[in-house]
Structures are given as structure tokens and as C-alpha cells.
Amino acid sequence: MSGKVEISRPRNIMDRLASGVVIGDGGYVFALEKRGYVRAGAWTPESTVKHPEAVRQLHREFLRSGSDVIQAFTFYASEDKLENRGNDAAQTIGVHEINKAACDLAKEVAAEGDALVLGGLSQTPTYLSGLGKEAVQQEFQKQIDVFVENDLDFILGEYFEHVEEAEWAVEVIKKCGKPVGITLCIGPEGDLHGIPAGECAVRLAKAGADMVGVNCHFGPTVSLETMRIMKAALEKASLSPYLIVQPLGYVTPDASRQGFIDLPEFPYALEPRVITRWEAQTFAREAYNMGIKFIGGCCGFEAYHIRAVAEELSKERGHPPPIGEEYGTWVDGLKLHTKPWVRARASRSYWDNLKPASGRPFCSSFSMCDSWGVTQGHKELMQHKEATTDVELQNTHK
């Protein structure tokens, strides 16, 4: 890889977190969907087998931009999710093959730099169907077995809407002996069963998670608000897991409790909400100042956003991102421009004070969220159905 930074760092994620900030990578499913390699709605990762060159290239872009961790593209790669999404990948390709290919690709690219490799688990249809803890953990175990076979550096449970399922994930991951990270896709209001964000963090730490935080569903500002609540609760409980935040690369102040999936722009018209690289730098600084040691991104976070995070934290990390080694910083580039008014923008104060325009006349600044309710577990759905039926019967008698 051009511009490779020649440094030697610990191979253990816990040692790296103890010695400084760790930068994650960005969002794979949205980036690859835009490029034509992932099916929107399903969001499953069979492209690790069908189009490995696309996954490899995205890994390489994140690494070159400054990622310290390359995440194997195993999002939604559980057997039940592949079957649930109406494709035949689970039968024709095989869950093991999809996850194995993801591990191989991530390890190959991580070795081009000095990055660690993680395997990811996420929420399951089995949980929402109410099939119980044992069945849910069996789905997790199938993926974990592949991660252990391929000796990935650590495992992250991500994108959980319910803390109960996340706790079950922590339990089964702990048994494999790898460091455990866990992130919920929740906002300040808490999980979709109504459990407060602070309580969620405490429960996950008590379950044994080494890293606790949030990812996805909300943009940087809302995600950091949630992290403040989590951090305060953990400190009150005298618990000290490392904090991790990987928000959307979108601005979501008007999202409801369930996050950006309720916005009418989801998923095909979110581009006007994409954060600028300067907003990514501001996010990185705020996260670092809060004491968050693992800082990355999720859906909408592209490689250039990770580059912005890495540039902002270059001093703390002791080096710029690899691309900075080759081409310098954004300041260096602007100073070379032929137009004097563009060269004048090579200052931090200019970008700190900029209020970017959307260029779209008559568009509102906020949207009205869809109000279909939230995704709940099987038991809660049945209770809601029974309650609705009772109300309908009472209205009929009236």
C-alpha cells in the first residue's frame, strides 16, 4: 500500500486502547450498495464471495485513510438472517463460506498496514421471533466459530436494538476467549424495550463486555449525546469498560426513537444529510475529549470521513493517516490552488465557521418521521396485538 506508515504497535486491542486512541473503519453495506454490490433492504454480505474485489478495495480505502481496525464484512451474515431476507445465499453459497471469505479479505488488507481485524455479530431474526436465548446464541456461535478458526483479533457485537439480545451476544463471545466489544443502535431514549441508555451500558459492562457504546441509527451529535448518558451511568456504577462510538455519517437531529430508518429519505435519498469531512473532524475531537478510545463510523461513513478523523487525531496517534504521508494534509493541498480565494481557505478558522448550504431551494431542514412504531420482540408484538384487538372489540360494542 502506498504511503504505508512503518510503526510497531501491540497486536492486542486491549493494549492498543490502553496506550491511545483506536480508529475504526466506516460503513460497508451502504457504501457497497451504492457501488452495486449489496442489495438494499436485505443488506447481507454475500459479496464477500460473489465480488471479493469490491470488498477488498473498500477495506484498502479505509486502511489508507487511517483505520487501525479492519472489520470483516460479516454484518447480517447469520444463517437465519440470510434465509429471512429472501435470498438463497445461505443454501447456494453457505454461511460458513461467506464469513470465511470475509475473514480472508479483512486479514489480507489489514496485513498491508498495521491494522487489527475484528469479526462482527448483529441482531437476529431469531430473537425478534421469540425463539429464546439458546436458539439466538446458536446463531451467534456459528459465526464466532469462523472468527476463532481464522484467529481474528477480537469480536464486536453491533447493531443491537435490544440490550437483552446484546447481553446474550456478550455471554457467548466471552466463551471464545477473544476481547469483546458491544454496541447498541440506540439513541438517548434507550433501547426499543424502553430500557434507558445508561442502564443498557451498565448491563453490558456487567455481562463482561470490554468495550461498550453505540453504532448506527443516529448521526454523530445524537450518538455522542447517548454516549454521555452511558458514560455517566457507568461511572456511577464504578464500571470502566472502554467506550466505543461508531455513528452514522448522516445528520439526524429529526430522527425519532428508532433512528434514521424512520426518516422518509431512508435509504435512497440520504445524500443531502451526509456529514462533511469537517463535521467528521469535529466529531472525532468531541469523542476523544469525552474519553472515548475507539472512534469509527457506520452507515454513510466513507473513507474520506475516516481520513478526517485520523487527521484530527494525528497528534494523539503520533502519525498522520497513510494518505497524509503521501500527499500531506488538506491545508497543504489548498495552498497549491491557483485561485487566491481558495488558497485563503487553508485555515482551520474558515472551516470551523462555515455553514454549508444544501443548494436545494424550498427544501425543509427537517423531515417528518414515519410513525409505524418500533421493532419489538415477539412477546411485545403479541401483547400489542392483543391490546389492539381488545380496543377494537370495545369500539365495536360501542
Oligomer: single chain
What is the radius of gyration?
21 Å
Q: At the third CATH level, what is the topology name?
A: TIM Barrel
What is the N-to-C order of secondary-structure elements (H for helix, E for strand)? HEHHHEHHHEHHEHEHEHEHEHHHHHHH
Count of helix runs: 20
Major sheet summary line:
8 strands, parallel
Low-pLDDT stretches are 1-5, 388-398
Structural class: alpha/beta
General form: globular
Looking at CATH, the homologous superfamily is Homocysteine-binding-like domain
The total beta strand count reads 8
Textual characterization of the structure:
Mean pLDDT is 91; it is low at 1-5 and 388-398. The chain has a single domain (13-397), classed as Homocysteine-binding-like domain (TIM Barrel, Alpha-Beta Barrel). It has an eight-stranded parallel sheet with strand order 1-8-7-6-5-4-3-2. The termini are far apart. Helices cover 47% and strands 9% of the residues. Helix 12 links the parallel strand 6 (211-215) and strand 7 (242-246). The protein is α/β, with parallel strands linked by helices and 398 residues long.
